[in-house]
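**User:** My hope is that you can spare some time for a protein that puzzles me. I have put the entry right below:
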Amino acid sequence: MKIPKAFLVAATLAAPILPTAGFAADIQWKPANGGSCDQVCSAARLTALYSGVHAPGNQVTQDKFYICATNMNGYRPGYNLKPKWSSACWVGYGGKEVAAKNYECACQ
């Protein structure tokens, strides 16, 4: 069964972040080619969508968890995080968190 990418993103976002019911339809997926999602979306004159900010040890940073997706036996949502993890889409696969190098970024 193939699940639309828009559904995967909607499922990963918290409901309070969604401004309208038609939000998922406004998402554009842009190939990342190993780039940071914020740069990929900015180059397309769009804004990268994110689901939260990195808070190691409860220390909130400005580092956003940008939403990405990759095809590993079906599309899987993941995150792209600057500066250390911005060249991949990190997804859950096979009980582990793995870095996908071929991924797309969610932009609006």
About this structure: The chain has a mean pLDDT of 83. The longest strand covers residues 85-93.
